[in-house]
Sequence to fold (302 residues):
Amino acid sequence: MAIARSQLMKELLPGLNSLFGLEYKQYPEEWRYCFEVENSDRSFEEEVKLSGFGLAPIKDEGAAIAYDDAQEAYTSRYTHSTVAMGFSLTEEAVEDNLYASLSARYTKALARAFQHTKEVKGAAVFNEAFTGQVGGDGVNLCSTAHPLVNGGTNSNEPSVAADLNETSLEAAIIQIGKWTDERGLKIAARPEKLIIPSDLQFEAERIMKSELRVGTPNNDINALASTSAISGGYMINHYLTDPDAWFLKTSVPNSLKHFVRVAMKTSMEGDFETGNVRYKGRERYSFGYSDPLGIFGSPGAG
Fold:
């Protein structure tokens, strides 16, 4: 439906001092701190996790050498979605000199809507980490039992859901250090950044930056701070919906990814039948993950 003069009558009258409601500041693009960005030229992208080899066995004198098999572990698929929206001005609104001011204001509003949409879609990977979409290995992004080719499992979620505190954060870092590859060989995974909703910002600040331990009468050092256990500190993602869920982004590569199939395009045209002027924006992309070990997460105890 086109934006008509009746919807914007105040802008046609003298004595109008100002317009407001479209000048709110925006958060920086928070999804960029969480996802690797790659371009795509296909309708979907697939990434395959490979299994290497296990421990090399001892070869007895005169015995034949043992051979091992490599194989594919699982496949992750990214299916792109098209995001599109626009607005239209009536011919009469254009004639009454509303064209320039409205097009400038509402193209900015359109860009703001697209950015917000991308943040929501990116944050959905976290918001659905425990009960939402299933990954290539058949379980959720955060699970206590990511299956391995050798029959074992990796866990990137605490066995008992825990709120963010010094103890749970230390336990998560220890758990990350025990992860293995598909054949049971240790991997050098490290936590790099704590990702939290705004509800946990003050708790995170105390835990990460206090010189001494938080909430105890003991004179112990804060080991998390003194060892820089989480090198990238913490970041707030304002689009996380669970107020007590928290996540650690790790050094494991090929994890959270954002594929760009078509970058943002905008266009405008006049409609012959109505004389209206139409604007639209369109982009096509996907958010997802390949290796779940790029994230450790807890839904919180609440």
User: Anything to note?
Assistant: Helices lie at 91-127, 166-176, 201-209, 223-226. The chain has four helices and twelve strands. Confidence is low (pLDDT under 50) at residues 12-21.
